[in-house]
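User: My collaborator and I are trying to settle a disagreement about how two of our proteins should look. Neither of us wants to argue from intuition anymore, so we agreed to look at predicted structures for both before our next call. Could you fold the first one, then the second, and keep them clearly separated?

Assistant: That sounds like a sensible way to settle it. I'll keep them separate. The first protein:
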Amino acid sequence: MLFFRTLGRVISFLSAGPLFLLLVFGNPGAQAGEEIAPHPEALNLQESFVRIAEDVAPAVVNLGTSRGTQHPDTPGLPQPPPRDYPRRGTGSGIIFDSRGYILTNNHVVQGAGRIRVLLLDGREYFGETVGTDPRTDLAVVRIHPKGAPLPVAHLGDSDQLRKGQWAIAIGHPFGLERTVTVGVVSGIGRSGMGITHYENFIQTDAAISPGNSGGPLINLDGEVIGINTAVLVRGGGIGFAIPINMARQVAESLIADGRVVRGFLGVLIQSVTPEIAGKFHAPEPRGALVGDVLEDGPAAQAGIQQGDVIWNYDGTPVKDVPALQRLAAATPPGNRVTLTVLRQGQPERLEVIMAELEEDGRPSERIQPVDAPPAEYGLSVEGLTDQEAARLHEQATDTTGVRVSTILPNSGAAFDGLRVGDIISRVEGATVSNEKEFRDALAEAPMDVLVLVNRGGRNSFMILHDPR
């Protein structure tokens, strides 16, 4: 049995191809004592890694930061006078402009009082923050170089990336200067990670550790394809990088305006699950379902309605909620875009004039999904108070409905995502204003009921699974 297991492993090695065999075992045709020459392909690949490390590393900088932090209280002991003590951090950055502009992560420099920038050749500067963008976790720092010109990295095109391509990370993990790690592009377009607001990450297995943040991810042509940002430790060290095309656009806005100007559509949206797709007659589970349309916003003025599925954005198919968020954000305010929406399964084309997304708390195109696995209902409802109806009227939304008063633990309603205080205004398209109407609508509805739920002033659709 041991022989067959060993044979199976050897066969799996052989299936990896001749280059892998040569890298691991050398030349299988060589005689004992004969000097084995490395295979030319292996040498070429090795030289590529060495060349990239030598060419790009000078443009990778070490960012040291200091932040003031209050002296911690020690219970039971006399407290010293309040004062700030320096708290130091470290990260990486990449020089992308000969005028001294450096790309890094927002979390590397956020709140920093001083930023020390150290170059490979020993030059040291104090950097100034040009601008930050917490929504993408990007920042631009500037130094004012003296003497020799600055080394500048070449930015690539992250839209051309494919899974399986080589990926090289250079940075300062744990303060170790200009560490080079190698892997592949393991995935593209990763979202829903909860790392930033706008997510479109490159996933890589090139080792990324604390201190790598803000450093470059590089392809075999020596081009920067991403800005290393996060690592999923529980996933065996899976790393994530912001695509350089997104980073370039943010950096240009920060340099020009000190902030990022984004387009605003004026809708609250949610994912289109297979169940939602069936309810709204969408041919496949993609796009973004409109749970609410903000009054007087661009979408409202264009005629977009609650329950529309945004299917295409200016000719680009909408994959999911993050995709629509990125497309809308990248559209300059004032531009006209054509949206294709599915309304009860029928496509309609609408023209929208984009507004500007304000950063002072104006609602953005995001809503948390409330879908959940099937189980029994287990809820009771009651009519709205006059105050609740008035509040709904002020929100320019449905002014009738029933409020969820109780939810049984471990019931279907609990698993389906309902909460006490939620207001259900529609059941399968029928408006409900009291408990009887709600129960009657449930009794007449098919299995897996579509309901419209208002939570905290925001509407979203969810599926309430039938216990029958």
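The second protein, kept apart from the first:
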Amino acid sequence: MTATTMPASELDVTAAALARAFHHDPLQTYILPDSQERAARSPAHFASILRYGQLFGDVFTIPGPASGAAVVLPPDGWDITPERAEAAGFDEWPTTLGEVAADRFVKTLSVLEPYHRRDVPGAHWYVLVLGVAPEAQGTGRGRALLQPTLARATAAGQPCYLETAQPKNVGFYEHLGFRVLAEVVDPTSGLRLWTFRRD
């Protein structure tokens, strides 16, 4: 399998695949506790994240039926600014997610921001999202989706950075050469969060 840049026409089906990928993710479950509401609201949430990747980074998918994606921000654009967030539609989260869910999501991610800036202060690649739909997990797609970014980072001698709230992802990322930088417990949600760096 070889990852390629996501065609713009596939944004919605890819967002739906990411919604399935993260349906049982601890962070997504925390921000949208009701399963039916989570299934209904998550696609629009991931559509805005995919749009951000299209505008300011890269979105990689595997050709064929939509099964997931990697959203990656480059060394000169990893910092998510308010202006860029608005351009991608992040300001619509109180409507698409609901005000409580949007507030929970932003506040949880803000817990990790100081660790991100502390542990990778220089130029680096930021894997903003990596997700594979349940029906396609265990087929090598996650590794394939990361390959273009890992290859570019290696060629440039630059690190990669990412975060997860899913315990089962820790071993997966370590197998790909990432090391845990911080394991954090969000004091509000109680969620365990991990940050990773691959040199």
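Some points you might bring to the call about the second protein. Strands lie at 4-5, 58-61, 68-73, 125-132, 160-164, 179-185, 192-198. The helical segments are 11-21, 26-31, 35-56, 82-88, 93-96, 99-119, 141-156, 169-175.
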